[in-house]
Amino acid sequence: MLQRVVRSTIIDAPIARVWAVLRDFNSHDQWHTVVAESRIEGGESPTQVGCVRSFTLQDGNRIREQLLTLDEREHKSTYCIVEATVPLQRYVATVTLKPVTDGNRTYWHWESTFATPPGMERELRDMVAQGVYEAGFANLRRHLERGGDLLPRGSAPMPVALPVPTQRIVLRAHGGPEQLQAENTEVPAPCAGEVRIRQRAIGVNFFDVYLRRGWIPGLLQPGGTPGMEAAGTVLDVGPGVTRFLPGDRVAYLGPLPGAYCGVRNVPADWVLRLPAAVDDEVAAALLLKGLTADVLLRDLGRVRAGTRLLVHAAAGGVGLLVCAWARRLGAVVVGTVSSEEKARVARTHGCEHVIVTSTHRFAAEVQALCGGADVIVDGLGADAQAENLVALAPCGHWISLGQASGPLAAVDPDTLVAKSATFSRPVVFHFVATPAQLQERAERLWAALADGTLRPPAIERHALGAAADAQARLESRRTTGPLVLVA
């Protein structure tokens, strides 16, 4: 069965200028970053119908394509693959340009049909649509914006994109929120494999507080910038990046801090496109917390109907998501909170039984309510350690997610033996280590939002320059739901 890929865009340049580049069948190594080098076989003209171009891709694949038609009047060309190490079979493509009505812009339509080996349909269709066509649109647009037309062979390369001024938050020394201060800086052009993003919303997580306090000193030293996730718009991409275009709405999370800023370069593997229904602030507020909830429920807790789940800080950013998602799965959800106000919030998000305690004493009530917890999601740390062991049911699993009250003491295996209990301390970034894993989990999160399993959160907003105030609020335990910084 033949696959068909169709993509179109508008280029902010007159049709004559765009056509001057595209009519040259051997020009693509000058403007398309996926192409490493190209030549026309036999010394023929690159506008001669029937000529064959032989080129190598950046990933090492080799392709030979033949120019089948070239219509100067209609600004249209057709070509096919003659031979390739990429398994695109019977590939025929057409490029068509049309002037936009104002005369200064160009409509570019690119389409192809091809067959693929069984099981590779989606992979190769996405490669052509995103890695070739969409990336080609972005690359030619950038080429023309920089003043590039066709460069003579062997000429100097085009100038790189300029640095972009921005604000970032810097940690002066490990300690309290007052150690965070704003400073002006510049973000250089993205390197190979990177995406430069103008950020509009930045997630604030308790993990940021741990780094600021110096509890994980190897990850954030004084002079560095906190923050693990953000959402915004792609400004430009570095060499080798084909999955994203300038103007794409995206979000990211990554294992290295640095998100508390207005513009940032990040590896493309951390980044995913946002659905139209998910706005920037919701994405920044939910991505890390939502994927954490997915890992807790799906991979570690294996939560299903009847699972007895104990969630500490049930009215917090992660807690609300875990409670709501677990309740939809049919779990019996017990939560701990520090006030009656938070108890009301937790109940509205699926927490069936709420224990209000400011002293981290809960085990006896958990045992009385449900006979012990099959799974405990613990973000409290030291002050809840002994109670968690008592609250566990036989064969229960204790997941240590955070340490808001201080780091855990070493867990003695003999304390687990009494109940055949298990213990884990996950890092969510290990579960989204590839773009495919990140995309799969994010799609489950967006679907849970779309079907009502998860509610759009009540977001508390702070200006980027007020990051210290935001972290102080988070530490105060007076917040319910997520916080974001608005850049």
The fraction of residues assigned to DSSP E strands is 25-35%
Number of strands: 22
**What structural class should be given to the helix and strand makeup?**
alpha/beta
The gross shape turns out to be elongated
CATH architecture grouping of the largest domain = Alpha-Beta Complex
Strand count, sense and barrel status of the largest sheet are: 7 strands, antiparallel
Helix count equals 12
Tally of individual domains: 3
Overall pLDDT: 92
**Rg from alpha-carbon coordinates:** 27 Å
Numbering strands along the chain, what is their spatial order in the largest sheet? Answer: 1-7-6-5-4-3-2
Distance between the termini: 48 Å
Uncertain segments:
150-160
CATH topology of the largest domain: Quinone Oxidoreductase, Chain A, domain 1
Summarize the structure in short:
With 487 residues, this protein is of the alpha/beta class.
Attribute tags:
Quinone Oxidoreductase, Chain A, domain 1; seven-stranded antiparallel beta sheet; 12 helices; 3 domains; about 30% strand; Alpha-D-Glucose-1,6-Bisphosphate, Chain A, domain 4; alpha/beta; about 475 residues
Architecture overview:
- With 487 residues, this protein is α/β, with parallel strands linked by helices.
- It folds into three domains: 143 residues, START domain (Alpha-D-Glucose-1,6-Bisphosphate, Chain A, domain 4); 175 residues, Alpha-Beta Complex (Quinone Oxidoreductase, Chain A, domain 1), CATH 3.90.180; 121 residues, NAD(P)-binding Rossmann-like Domain (Rossmann fold).
- The chain has a seven-stranded antiparallel β-sheet.
- About 2% of the residues have low confidence.
